Amino acid sequence: MPEHIRFARNRREFLTDCFCGFGAMGFSSLLAAEAPKSPLAPKEPHFPAKAKRIIFLFQAGGPSHLETFDPKPLLNQLHGQKRPDTFGKVEYQNVNQNSRILGTKRTFAKYGKSGLEISDLLPHQAQIADDLCVIRSMHGDMVVHSAAQYQMMSGRVIPGFPSMGSWVTYGLGTQSDSLPAYVVMPDPNGAPEAGQPVYTNGFLPAVYQPAMFRAGKRPVLNLEVPKGISMERRRKTIDLIRQLNEANLLGEDAEFSARMSAYDTAFKMQTEAPEIFDLSNEPQETLDLYGVGKADTDDYGRRCLMARRLVEKGVRFVCVVAGGGGAETEWDAHSDIEKNHLRMARLTDQPTAALVKDLKRRGLLEDTIVLWGGEFGRSPESERGSGRDHHNTGFTMWVAGGGFKGGMAYGATDDIGLKATVNPVHFRDLHATLIHQLGLQQDRLSYLHQGRRERLTEVHGTILKDLLV
Amino acid sequence: MLHLTIRKFCALSVAAVVWAAPDIAPLGKYTAAERRHWAFQPRADVAPPVLTDAAAKAWIRTPVDAFVLAGLRKAELTPAPEADRATLIRRVTYNLHGLPPTPEEIAAFVEDKDPKAYEKLVDRLLESPRYGEQWARHWLDVVRFAESDGYEYDTHRPDAYRFRDYVIASLNADKPYDVFLKEQLAGDEMDPKNDTLLVASGFNRLGPLRKNAGNQDVASSRTEVLTEMANIVGASMLGMTMGCARCHDHKFDPIRQSDYYRLQGYFAQTHASDVIIATAEEQAKYKATMEPLESEMRKLRFAMRRASEEDKGKILTRLEEIDGQIPPPLTAMYAVKNEPKEMTPIHMLERGDYRNKGAKVGMRPPGVLLPEEAAELPLETEKPRTRLAEWITDPQNPLTARVMVNRIWGYHFGRNLVTTPNDFGRMGTRPSHPELLDWLANAYVKNGWRMKPLHRMMLLSSAYRQASRSPNEKLFAEKDPDNKWYWKANRRRLAAEEIRDTMLAVSGRLNPKAGGPSVMLKIDEELIKDLKRPQYWVTTRDRGEHDRRTIYMIYKRNLILPFMQVFDSPDTLLSCARRDQSTHAPQALELLNGTVSNDLAGALAKRLQGTAREKVDYAWRLATGRLPNERERALSMKYIDDPDPVALTEFALSLFNSNAFLYVN
């Protein structure tokens, strides 16, 4: 079985390599003998799936579990004291033996029919408590941002391995013929620590690259026709390219027709992708729900709303990033956790809840997985007096929709939130469960690369059946 | 034949045998079946098949043809006729230079009556410095060369370009491959005073490097550094997936976990070394800036020990601030050196985790290639990497030459004999032409590991000169859809660098300047904002520099240029043995709407003079190496027969987007 670096380009391979072989592009007659099959054409899952797509609300920097979803009354009792030895040791970046326990200023209450405990930091997410499947026993292997972000996204602590979004589109293709299969909407403040490689397709073919929908005037690179060129002119130019290619065709040529249909798709993207950004046809009620137009929530609200619009159009994986560009503009609360987390919550809480509500009322939540969380949580001990350090041995993420149970808390950390002690969930277990819901077997979703059958879960992850409906 | 290596290796090992101690990991054991794997066998002493019939005699030009023809006949296929001269010169010029031939070069070659015209052409191309620029790219892909650290800070390596220049110069000089490898693995050990060798030793530092803020976990970082050093040797030089054995014995190949750590053992003494070459004046200036910063940092770190929680925060913030003020490092050679006092004891690590230390190991090559119980050397051995290099470049090493000739073959023919060039193990494919592979490897070693004679042998073959379309296209495509038997030439799409370089060349803008520090292009602000340290991206001031060949553009791990990314450039995080040739819509968007193609289409349009027909014909000759056919000409002329001032530029852009431009037959 040859690996990705094979190069013999036969007809079949080209067909499976082209971006969008969706016929009806005026060129398809040449392919009559064998319908082109794009690698991004929708693919059957390995077994019947509960979910079809994922929206990952990536909370970069590492939101505190202790201030959000994991109440620890003992923390406030031990405030200012050294951590009792009985809790064991963990490795930190900055916290050391002299550090003291930091109590939380947040208060927790029970919400919804389920009585799920959520802190007053997230009043909007509290309203969707019954839809949330909160995993309080997450743990990863790395305590520094970049490596932890790589592991969260790709299952590996080093860069260069395909991200979840690339794996999922590799496994399932896309249901849209005019939008990218995998979209990342980064935080306008900047990238998370792991940078561009965190979203990478790694060694998977370039068709599984993410499309970055950035903030600013040119949200998608090269989507706009250059200044001084009309769309009409551009259509003529594309026609010329097609005609020139046809004029030199020696019979049927799968690769060349794949290339031509890529131009048709590109042209379609030029007209249809900008529509995703145009929220003017959304009712005011929806805009208000997401907080669009309100200073604090406008940016994240827009991006969450666009995420819904993208999945509606068949996009397979959307990553909406909250946080980037440095500790203060992400959840990385090394100093003054109150200030940092209150700000981050003010920007993201309402849009987050709105997305889940909106998906639900449209019937999309049933087969859309929404995942919320960051690369780690934060330390029970204080750093710089009022901040918390990185903390990978026990923290919280949540999942909603896509066949996950709502209104439940799974697993637990010890009494100060130091370590995941009950039903610990590693990133690879979460990955295994997510792709299981998409109907993909972790062993079969693999790619031979330099002697190893690589997969998202690296080694076998446990499917968390308890979380599933 | 292998025993020579073994005897030599054993002779090196007798000095100090340490493996008897109980805390030493036992040496791996290998079954006879494991040792029998084809790639571990000595190379066979093969001769080209003897084909005496007239057809064969007429076709066979160089010995490789005999092997290819024998294979074709066995598969009941016949070679395609020879490509026409215009196609040939375009193919071979791209293959060796990554640039198109000029219309004048094409005309001269097409009209050359000399029966040795093609030989002359190949020799001319091989002698040009453009050759090194094109073939260096292949090696840089394999060794995952980049000019930044990757990870959070993605700190630039402003002196890493010297390694790129070293590779280009080595290839242009046709440096023997065994010397080339030795210099990269152990240049500093060969002669610590020789600048070229020091730069070459930077090979050992090419991998991504994680630097953490705050308390750096030294042991963890060191493990990662050693991992990068060892893994790349397996992938690039041996075609062995050594990295798979970091956490446990290799699942498919006879590589034990102990073999992996014994390979790491060769690097136990190896540490980074920046050999300063800045002038005294620059050094003084640097010192003047750095001294106050350093002294403040020292004071802060000292104060940190007793600081209250409150003050600690302030100190850390200040430390971060100072970190941002540190000036760019002094000009230096990016090298390595041995520091015996700083030697890292190498342990087996359970599941590859630096915290789970197991038994100790010394240094030894992979055991399956050695006799049973071949002793390891102690980590203290002097010039350890030289030992490794000697073993790798030993003429009898069954892997080294095979792996390299297979790469060279693949870059010429579009398909490697072993289609998994970095994996000659059980999960890799078996060679399609095992005798040819061995014959080439033997010839390579016999000719003093020189690449240029090998290039000649391949390029002058009839196999290489075939047309990319067979008269029996349909039938043969069914029989051999992958063209495994080379019944025609493989058409290929230009690589990212070739596309950009060609647009520069045909628009008359290419700045041919060679070597020196890498160029940072003006790019979209949003891309720079995505960096943790946007200040590292300093657009090169001299705009003329922006029009240099792509190999001289900076290769930054956290910001691969979008143009490169869409056209399958590697991410330089792992070794890339072979680039994909994908086709997807973002490529179309890049070429239609991107600044590079639009800017250069404008420049090409300005070069077009005369009547409409003259304009059209000249543009085609420049961009595609041929005149347009009648239909192409008619379409082109009709398009530019338009008062719209952008029509001519858009026509040029159409050419950049056409298959005739993007593909090489």
Helix fraction of chain A, binned, reads 25-40%
Number of strands of chain B: 6
How many β-strand stretches of chain A? 17
Strand order of the largest sheet of chain B: 1-2
Total domains of chain B: 3
CATH architecture of chain A: 3-Layer(aba) Sandwich
How would a textbook summarize the main sheet of chain B? 2 strands, antiparallel
Question: What is the share of helical residues of chain B?
Answer: 40-55%
What value does the average pLDDT of chain B take?
91
State the CATH topology of chain A: Alkaline Phosphatase, subunit A
Oligomer: heterodimer
Structural class based on helices, strands and sheet pairing of chain A: alpha/beta
Shape of chain A: globular
Based on Cα principal axes, name the global outline of chain B: globular
What gyration radius of chain A follows from the Cα positions, in whole Å?
A: 23 Å
The number of helical runs of chain A is 11
Strand content of chain B: under 5%
Rounded mean pLDDT of chain A is 88
What does this structure look like?
The complex is a heterodimer of chains A (469) and B (665). Chain A has a single domain (47-224, 267-467), classed as 3-Layer(aba) Sandwich (Alkaline Phosphatase, subunit A), CATH 3.40.720. Helix content of chain A is 29%, strand content 16%. Chain A contains eleven helices and 17 strands. In chain A, the strands form five sheets. In chain A, strands 1, 4, 5, 6, 7, 8, 11, 12 and 15 form a nine-stranded mixed β-sheet that branches. A two-stranded antiparallel sheet of chain A has the order 2-3. A two-stranded antiparallel ribbon of chain A has the order 9-10. In chain A, helix 6 packs antiparallel against helix 7 (254-277) and helix 9 (298-312) runs parallel beside helix 10. Chain A is globular, with a radius of gyration of 23 Å. The two termini of chain A are 38 Å apart. By secondary structure, chain B is mainly α. Chain B folds into three domains: 2-17 and 24-36 and 205-392, no CATH class; 54-133 and 397-493, no CATH class; 585-665, no CATH class. Chain B is 49% helix and 4% strand. In chain B, helix 5 packs across helix 6, helix 17 crosses helix 18 and helix 25 crosses helix 26. The longest helix of chain B has 27 residues, at 280-306. Chain B is globular, with a radius of gyration of 27 Å. Chain B starts with a helix and ends with a strand.
